[in-house]
Amino acid sequence: MTVPPDHPVTEGFTYAASGVDIDAGERAVALMKGAVEATNRPEVVGGLGGFAGLFALDVAKYRRPLLASSTDGVGTKIALARQLDRHGTVGIDLVAMCVDDLVACGAEPLFLQDYVACGTVVPERIAAIVTGIAEGCRLAGASLVGGETAEHGDLMGPDDYDLAATAVGVVEADAVLGPERVREGDVVVAMASSGFHSNGYSLVRRVVAEAGLDLHATPAGLDRELGTELLEPTRIYALDCLALVGELGVEGVHAFAHITGGGLAGNAARVVPDGLEAVLDRSTWALPAAVQLLESHGVPRTESERAFNCGVGMVAAVAPEVADRAVDLLTGRGVPAWVAGTVQTGPGGSARLVSAYR
C-alpha cells in the first residue's frame, strides 16, 4: 500500500503506548483469581477466562422459578476511596447495591458479574477492588462468575475508575414479596445500617470540602477517623432477609424495602399498596452521629432524610404476630433490628416519619 506523503509512517505504534496495557490487565487477573474462585457455588461451571460465565441452575429444585436481576454501581463514594487511596471495600458496596435490591422481592442471589472501567490499570488497585467484590459475593452467598476490566485512558484520568455490576437471583413465583402482600396492621421492622452505605456521597463530599473537615481526624461524636467512617462498606442483608423468610414464610414476611437513594420514607413507600401508608416512628432509634455532624455544618433535616438512610438500611413489613420473632432472629444473626412502625389506612402507597429521633 502506498502511504500518502502527508501521512508519514510512525514507528513503534503499540496498544500500551495508546493507553491500554494488556500485560497489566493480565497481572491484575492473576492477582484477583484466587479471591474470585473462592466465591464459586457448586452450580458454577468452568472458571475465569471464558467468554461467558456459566451457571447450572438446578431447575428440579424449584416448582416455578423466576429469575430476578439488578444492576447498580457505587456512585461518588468512589471519589472518596480515591482521595483516601483505600480501594478494598468499595467492591462490597457494589455487591450490596445489587443483591440487597434482589432480596427485596425475596430472591436468593445466585451470581454476579462486574464491570471495572479505569484510566490506567494498576494491577494491585484493580485486585484490591475485585477482592472486595469477591468478599461482597461471599457475604451474599453469590458467585462472582465473571466480569470485565476496561482501560480507557482517552476517557478517564490515570487514577479514575468506576464500577458497575449485575446480579441475578431466583425466587419461586408464589413466594415473590412486595406490596401485593402488605396489609393494614403489618409491623415495620427496621434493620440498622452500617453507615451511609452508598448513597448521598455527592452531598457528603461537598459538605466535607466546603466545611474543611479533615478526613484523617476524629470529630466529636465519632469514635474513629471521619474518612474511615465514610468508607464503611454497605451492610449486606441478603442472607439475613432470606433466613427471615425461611423461618417465618411468606405468610409472615410480606415485603422488604432496601433504603437507598430517596431515603427511608421514599423507599418504604415503594412496598406500600394503595389505601395504606407506613408510619415510621423516629423515636425508636437514634440519628447516627455522622449524619448529625453533617447537619451541624448546614445540611437541613429534610435533606438528610431524603439523601441518607439515617440509620436504617432495610425494612421488612411483617405480620404483627411474628414481629417479635423477626426482631429476635435478625438480632441473633448480628443485624440490629427493632419495631419501627406500622402499616395503617392512609394516603395510597405512602410512608411518613413521625416523632423525633431518640
From TrEMBL:
EC category: ligase
Residues covered by the PurM-like C-terminal domain: 183-352
GO terms of molecular function: ATP binding; phosphoribosylamine-glycine ligase activity; phosphoribosylformylglycinamidine cyclo-ligase activity
Pathway, per record: Purine metabolism; IMP biosynthesis via de novo pathway; 5-amino-1-(5-phospho-D-ribosyl)imidazole from N(2)-formyl-N(1)-(5-phospho-D-ribosyl)glycinamide: step 2/2
InterPro entries: PurM-like_C_dom, PurM-like_C_sf, PurM-like_N, PurM-like_N_sf, PurM_cligase
Lineage top rank: taxon: Bacteria
Span of domain PurM-like N-terminal: 67-171
Gene coding for it: purM
Protein name: Phosphoribosylformylglycinamidine cyclo-ligase
EC number per UniProt: 6.3.3.1
Main localization of the protein described in the UniProt heading: cytoplasm
Keyword ATP-binding attached: yes
Reaction catalysis annotation: 2-formamido-N(1)-(5-O-phospho-beta-D-ribosyl)acetamidine + ATP = 5-amino-1-(5-phospho-beta-D-ribosyl)imidazole + ADP + phosphate + H(+)
Location of the protein in the cell: Cytoplasm
A Gene Ontology term for the protein's cellular component: cytosol
Keywords for this protein: ATP-binding, Cytoplasm, Ligase, Nucleotide-binding, Purine biosynthesis
Stated family: Belongs to the AIR synthase family.
One GO term of the biological process aspect: 'de novo' IMP biosynthetic process
Keyword flag Ribonucleoprotein: no
